[in-house]
Amino acid sequence: MKHINVALFVPDMGCPHRCSFCNQKTISGKVVPPTAEDVERAVQTALSSADCNEGEIAFFGGSFTAIDREYMLCLLKKAKEYVDKGLFKGIRISTRPDCISDEMLDLLSFYGVSSIELGCQSMNDRVLSLNKRGHTAEDVVKAAEKIKKHGFEFGVQMMTGLFGDNDEGALETAEKLISLSPDTARIYPTVVLENTELSRLYREGKYQPQCLDEAAELCAKLLMLFHENDIRVIRLGLHSGGNVEEGFVAGVYHPAFREICESRIYLRLVLDEIEKKNIESTDIEITVGRRFVSQLTGQKKSNLKKLNGLGFKVSIVQNDFEKYKISVRG
Fold first, then answer.
1. Under 8 Å CB-to-CB from 119, ≥6 apart: which residues?
2. Strand partners, 59
3. 55 and 279 Cβ atoms separated by less than 8 Å
4. What whole-number distance in Å separates Cα of residue 329 and Cα of residue 162?
5. Model confidence over 261-318: pLDDT tens digits?
6. Of 3.30.470.20, 3.20.20.70, 3.30.572.10, 3.40.640.10, which CATH number belongs to 6-255?
7. How far apart are CA 201 and CA 192, in angstroms?
8. pTM
9. Could you tell me where the beta strands, DSSP code E, fall in the chain?
């Protein structure tokens, strides 16, 4: 059976600041904080349908290490029961860079936490300030050093299209995060949600979010950048569900956003290969890993249509190529 993670959201709790873009209740679709009983129900449901011993029980949504200590331990104790039984490999949490200390990390380790993700969002202090993050890029660096020193799997989260940011700034953020040697990354194009500072700025004409095309072009570059540095991007784009659709105002929110970005990568790889090999034949054969055929062809065969528009008649050969590897023959 497929192993899975169990995700529980702890909305709008613990955060000492209200970021310009944040409305956690909308993102998670939750209003009432989860209890230990909720943890047990979610875990039992997962165990009834999947092998979870390589998965994690994950607490997302708020700044987990900043919530009430007694409440945090209540959740961790219940999750730890299943880790101790070998039913899950560990517990995953997300938190803020300025809510990490050696004492807290010792506590998390004791209760079975295996992975910690930092909501970094940007590594530019001006952008962080404009978006009311309440921490600095140096806080990210210091927290990362502590997390790695304590032996946790380390993940980073960044955003594109933030108020006051641009593509160059996002690429610089990625480079700086890569230099911290994280194990995983999540990339979130900014979504404007109701009841946020960003929604006010947007309606006043002071903020213009990225369109889908702009975000996809940038995130395709970011995907390759992390891939080339052996860092797994485990999420690209805000997850669907909850009340996001109801709270959505503007920005990039698409259920197949990752596939759109990866399709762009494959189209660029093909065009670069054609140029490099100076292929003049109109009939071309593209070899790609069988798991990545849909990314090569593109949504609704958009890549094939673009190649046809450039005068190429495409045939596809499937093999065991790894991700982002292709071969073109004329």
1. 63, 94, 95, 96, 97, 157
2. 8, 93
3. no
4. 41
5. 999 999 999 999 999 999 989 999 999 999 999 999 999 999 999 999 999 999 999 9
6. 3.20.20.70
7. 10
8. 0.92
9. 6-9, 56-60, 90-95, 113-121, 153-160, 184-189, 191-193, 232-236, 248-251, 283-289, 313-319, 326-329
